[in-house]
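Hi R.,

Here are the chain sequences for the assembly we discussed:
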Amino acid sequence: MLKRRNLLSAAAIMPFAAVAGTTAAQAAGKTYYWISHGGPADPVWTYFLAGANLWASDTGNTVNTSFHSGDVPSHQEAMRAAIAAKPAGIVSTSPDPGSLVKVVEEARAAGIPIINFNTPDPSAKFQAYVGANLESVGRGWAKFLADNKLVKDGDFVWMPVEVPGATYGVQEEAGAATILKPMNVTWEVTDATLDQAEVINRMADYLTANRTKIKAIIGLGDLVTGSIKRVFDQVGIKPGEIPVVGWGNSNDTTQEVLNGYVNAAQWQDPQATSYIALSLAAMAAGGIPPGFDIITGALYQKDTAAIYDKILSGK
Amino acid sequence: MERSLVERLIAKPELGPLVLLILELAVFASINPEFLSALNISNALTFTVELGLIALAMTLLMTSGEFDLSVGSVFGFSAVLMWTMFNTGLMPMWVAFLVTLGVALFIGWANGMLVTRQGIPSFLVTLGMLLVVRGTALYTTQGFPQNTWKADDQWLAQLLVGDATILGVRLYMSMLWFVLAALATHYVLTQTKVGNWIQASGGNSNAARARGVPVAGVKILLFMFSSAMAAFAGIISSIRTQAANPNSGTGYELEVIAMVVIGGTVLTGGRGTIIGTVLGILILRLMRNGIVLIGVPGLAYNIFIGGIILGMMVLHNYIERRHHAGT
Amino acid sequence: MTDDLVRMENINKHYGRIQALTNVSFSVRPNEIVGLLGDNGAGKSTLIKVLSGAVPLSSGDIYFKGRKVEMRNTADAIANGIETIYQDSALVPQLSIARNLFLGREPTIGPAFLNRMDQDAMNKVARDLLKQVGITKNIPPTTPIGSLSGGERQAVAIARAMHFDSDLIILDEPTNNLGVAETQGVLRFVRGARDSGHSCIFIAHNIHHVFQVVDRIVVMRRGTIVADDIDPKKMSIAEVEDVITGEAH
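And here is the predicted structure of the full complex:
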């Protein structure tokens, strides 16, 4: 009896000991906080994270990262905890439009450099923004479909999204609307969730029910766009049968573009976005206030997809 | 006088769910006949299998009076663990598979020990374990999903999830595994000594112990079975969806418990039905599929699913009370 | 002495610093119904729990049919032929009569690894037992036992003890929640059990019930035995009550 209990307690202590060990080793340079509204296993976020980790090792600074899977209060709490820790700087995405206004004020009041990346929120007083302009990204997608005659007046477009109501989807949809509305095109946004199996399941169901109606698909997020091939295969739709455009920050999507499942995909330069955001924060910490935003992103098609596929597989 | 066949049928707890399922099929099919098409049914059933395996084990566990909330975490963690060991070339896939099942059995054993020896309610123990396992999965992978592209030429992958298209319907090996598991758990619960012990442990554990039934041992075994099924399901899912994400499986535990309860197994333990669980699995999964097919607005899904679950529980209660009033 | 069915010698039991039983020596002869009486906290329940293996003793010995035995758990007690009937009958309400009867020692049929219960045999035995205990309603043995009345359930519990040929049946407050008619039924069965070769220890708060069936009364007070050999035919209820409370005659 006694032996078994000892073994169990030893096993319980081990993970804590391991964590204590690693954090001790990391105590070099200044500390920055990197806070994301994404899901920790969402493929695109792993590349953003990689950018942050590379910056940390290149500069010898410590970067504390956290993911909040769309949970706004959790995201706000993390930012407040970061402010209380008095770091050299904070870089953060925006989970919901307007959700970080107060928190950013607190950071500015505490004199902590705070940079916005990935999902913009102009209503909050971040010092600078690094990333794509989501409204123009959305508009670009709709324009791609219209210019290439993949969508015409009165058609129906399907827009699946992982987390309905979150900043990214909302702004992209607004941008697309500026092109689609005047064409009398209708669309529907559907909830896919952040769970890969559930995403495939829900998209397959919707596609089965509406395949004759859907004339084009705009994937508002990386996970949904990256699932297109598996969904098409499950439902029995051939690549190219329904045009698809959307986010393309994962190997899944670069492969889909190369194989004809997706017509064009948006590259957000996730590693670079993270890296530059942290650099801007460091610059601000050093006393040079950043006076401009940095816009990233490019829409790639079959001819250039291989480049991004290579970058993403370079892990 | 022995009751008539009809009376006996009405008394069975599975009648309610069966009626609900038939009603559901009828309603959906009448609004959109595509619902009953071969393609749709096979699509709807594919994912069903993975949750279903967990639900079968959860039925036995709940019959014995306990819950396992950690199944979703074990689901995601197991896929990641197996693929990590295989992708790093540490061992052949079938060995990685067995090692992963072993780890899952250990997690189940730990759950069981904490519940039976320490007397902590299973709700709390498995909630804690849910967090520990999920956190372990995320931390050790640093969030990177494991790629599963090398699966195609593995015999184990074929054995677990190989598919064939028969008469226009895509059938996966995993469906066969589910059917076998359902038959086995049904047999255990209704025909075996152990099955009697499981029901007794949940119905009146003091009485069971007084009669010499090893209640603690039975429960520990059921926790281990639950974790093993969650691991098995997670591995199957990772091969089929070609993704091993440490975040997979989040929230599955509640969906599984809902399936078990809708099927007629009592939340407080003592009575369980595998047939009911299979019906519950179909009811919930086909409902999710059906509301998409009948055109419920995409963002309103949850309203409908929640509403239908609540409605079903009320109907369930009504049928239960009517059937008890007679006895 | 040597032909005692059960002999407990110098039993001590303490829970932490609380001494529940102090040097208790207690025995039961074959074919005897012993009534165990005492006020709340006298130690009756503890003594019974030690004898039935539900609780380990701190010191002392137990002899069964002349042989020294170790009672580590309830399974040991059952294996030695000691059955306990509790207030709630140790029955599982959702299980059928047959399944309850055989709980813990279900007969199996077929290859061992299949673990298959022989439900036909169980149901047949159950049907016979139901007749034996006089349950005249035609209740199928597959009925959940929860749908029987309290008295009927107790009857089944006693029949279970008799069926498995336990030498000693311990009844711990079996009539507590029963009506008059049902109580009479239980008392009848207890007498029937003794007549067919089983011994019983009968614990009850209600002295009147005890007086109706027992051969000998043992009284406990504050963890010890204060009277060992009271003949209910020779002493009145009032006198026995005095012994229990410790007041002078």
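Chains A and C do not touch (no CB pair under 8 Å). Residues 17-27 of chain A have pLDDT under 50 and may be disordered.

Let me know if anything looks off.

Best,
T.
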